Amino acid sequence: MISNGKSKTVIELHVNGDSHEVMVRSGDTLLDILREQLGLSGAKRSCENGDCGACTVLADGKPIHSCLSLAIESCDQSLMTIEGLMGSPIQQAFVDNWAIQCGFCTPGFILNCHALATEHPNASDEVIEEWMCSNLCRCTGYQEIKEAVQSVVRASGNA
Amino acid sequence: MIAKDISTSVKKKDHDGKISGQLAYISDVKVDSMLYGVLYRSPIAYGKVRSIRLPPLPEGYEKIGAEHIPGNNFVKLLHNDQPIFANEWVNYIGEPMFMLVGPKLDILYQLVDEVEVDFEEHPAIFTLEEAIKQKDQTGVFAYHEFGESLDVIKSIEKKAHRVIEEVYETGYQEHVYLEPQGMLGIYKADEILVKGSMQCLYYVKNALISALACEDDEVRVIQSPTGGGFGGKEDFPSMMACHVAIAAKVVKKPVMLLFDRAEDMEVTTKRHPAKFTYRTAIDEQGNILSMNVEVFLDGGANAGLSPVVLQRALLNSSGVYKIPHFHAKGYALKTNTVPNGAFRGFGAPQSFAAIESHLGHISSMLKRDPIQYKRNYLVKQGDPTITNGRFRDPILLEDMIQDLLQTADYTKKKEAFRAFNQQNKRFKKGIGASLFLHGCGFTGSGERDHIKAVVKLEKTEQDQVLIKVSNSDMGQGALTTLSKIVAKGLDLPYEDILFPDPDTKDVPDSGPTVASRTTMIVGKLLERAASQLKAGWQSGVAQEVVEHYIHEDMIPWDEETFSGDAYPAYSWGVNLIEVEVDILTGSVRIERVYGSFDIGRAIDERIVKGQIDGGMAQGIAYGFMEKMTSQLGKIQQKTISDYGPPTAMDLVPIESKLYDNPYAGGPYGAKGAGELPLTGGAPAVQAAIEDALQIPFYQIPVTPELIIESLTKKDGDARD
């Protein structure tokens, strides 16, 4: 897969349980390919600099900023976008806690918090805050999002 | 579900599409044969265009410029000074001159890079300071002066025990809506359709009619789901709409214009930087005898909404206080910098930061507690406003203050902090308050003379009710709150009320989504429409009802003399903030935040809490974190992290409380709530930092750098 920035390579991406052959340039970000070629627009383009986390997707269960990841680096990973997460406890918790206003940060935040709840089922408030710092929300002031995560973590912690 | 109490929260209308990622924002939309646009922007701050040289354009790529505009080459807000494509003179770095359109974005960026423009450069005005110096010659967008005569003030000052004069400055604030600006223009044989992220459909539509010189039915505007606005999508989108509409008309294809974050930060409107001078005369007991205020706003390169922002800044320049012998004047001035525009609070956050700071400083000079000192001057029901209007409704401010002092255990805490600060060499704790209000709705007679809002309810044969208004949900919950108001009026389940994306083909002009007017003004009209529909309800029959704005009986507003009732109603707030300052690094940690608010009655408690939490976060960050600067006309912060809005770690849970004080002019008693929570954050955080360090600040944001500088200066002064 040696190429200059312009020549194209065919790679296979594994997204939400499906495999897709896509033609990419080495400089294409994962965000570009998800949105422009696979039509998965739930990953949002906002800062394209790793500041805001609106583009967050999961790679092997870990949240990554897809605007900073190259598509060609992602071919061996199992990727999940918001389109692949249906009916999860964290999504319901966002609704139940009014953790959504404009919604633009929501898919990225939900994926990050889903990974958090999976990885740290008994996460302390400090761990929750630390994880939440990789995503920005300009509407809520974060309180409602934190409550949503706490409700899921508490529920799974008790189980 | 039929809600008994309007304040009880319901599931928001738009949650499902937002948690599943299915809701399509404008940048998610793809249309067949869609082209993209990239704007060529002025690289200089002020000058005349001599010549433009384009690189050879590949097939399928075109330049769209002023020559393609059939109508007026400006977007009119208040003045005709905002060119759609600046083709003769440029007035700021980043001003759009023309647009290249074509199928591939990367090729467009490359082509724009290769454009060569020759300018005759002229000396530019880069700072508010320079603009103030030359304001008598040129560059005044708006000016107002009102209040007590200066002769009277002078004679009072002459006899006063002391006259305290302070200069205070506030900086830019950037909206940082998570969704950057975006607009799509679609060509159809008989109409141009524009879709995008926006707060004000009819502002956009009217701009299009003017630019395209076309009939009312030849343009159509649809609001896409909007990823945050905060005022940033009030005035700005009209310009982008003109760009894509003109391009679509020329190329006869859909044209999409999407800003990336750097472009959005560099060229879109921001909160006006401001400079204030407060001059206050006091007697021997510390009583205020007179106050004289000067306000200067940096409008940027065109007038935009600056004249109205100036009005709100002036109207709030006395805070929540009844000041004897008050005089104020203010200017909105031109600089060759990015135009400033609407931002949640609209001039008021600057003024409240200034007046709260000034009275705080006077109280510490007098060795009085700032809250107790300010309490002597609170306006009461029936008092005149500074423009000789009236505060007609009950004011709960005194109770709100009393409650909050008790809840927070203010007096004890203040003593405890003093003891802590004496013990602790490195960390200093402080507590500070702010008292504030927000005039709800448009300033002056805007609702009656300019907006003339109309709302419509449509009932289908299946007895479903559709809300037809031109107001946007940009996250604040308008879809839900307005639906609740209609559901309650009709005694129907909230779920039976439908609220399609606003489309000017389909909805009357119920005004823009600004000025904390949507719930109060549009909601009231919908409440009336619902009761009209209920009275004539015929099951199984399609019906339609329309309601028009009725101006409340008030003291007529006169913009020339700056007198009368500027607002029909006021919302009120008290904030209290506790901080800990690390004097080694200058960093400030927020420890507790209290917010008490009177917004009449909450239409939905959780939605209101969301407005409080998010608004206070923006207001607090405006006071000590968010710093944006311009150097020689160029915005220096190009990424979100350069600028620094709060993350989850910068804030603590906000302990908020609502005071029920129903307002007869609002639906079920509601007043405006959107802007108010931002207003008190900055002055309270400044006061808390001052309390911790026992030094005054004369500007916001109070950054770590400023803290260290001030501490060093204080040390130096102590040694001198």
From TrEMBL, chain A:
Keywords: 2Fe-2S, Iron, Iron-sulfur, Metal-binding, Oxidoreductase. InterPro entries: 2Fe-2S-bd, 2Fe-2S-bd_dom_sf, 2Fe-2S_ferredoxin-like_sf, 2Fe-2S_ferredoxin-type, 2Fe2S_fd_BS, Beta-grasp_dom_sf, Diverse_Oxidoreductases. Residues 9-85 form the 2Fe-2S ferredoxin-type domain. The lineage of its organism: Bacteria, Bacillati, Bacillota, Bacilli, Bacillales. It comes from the Bacteria. SUPFAM superfamilies: 2Fe-2S ferredoxin-like (SSF54292), CO dehydrogenase ISP C-domain like (SSF47741). This is Carbon-monoxide dehydrogenase small subunit. It is an enzyme of class 1 (oxidoreductase). GO terms for molecular function: anaerobic carbon-monoxide dehydrogenase activity. Its EC number is 1.2.7.4. It holds the Pfam family Fer2.
UniProtKB/TrEMBL annotation, chain B:
PANTHER family: ALDEHYDE OXIDASE 1-RELATED, XANTHINE DEHYDROGENASE. Pfam families: MoCoBD_1 (PF02738), MoCoBD_2 (PF20256). The keyword Oxidoreductase applies. This is CO/xanthine dehydrogenase Mo-binding subunit. Keywords: Molybdenum, Oxidoreductase. InterPro entries: Ald_Oxase/Xan_DH_a/b, Ald_Oxase/Xan_DH_a/b_sf, Ald_Oxase/xanthine_DH-like, AldOxase/xan_DH_MoCoBD1, AldOxase/xan_DH_MoCoBD2, AldOxase/xan_DH_Mopterin-bd_sf. Residues 20-123 form the Aldehyde oxidase/xanthine dehydrogenase a/b hammerhead domain. Gene3D superfamilies: Aldehyde oxidase/xanthine dehydrogenase, a/b hammerhead (3.90.1170.50), Aldehyde oxidase/xanthine dehydrogenase, molybdopterin binding domain (3.30.365.10). The keyword Oxidoreductase applies.
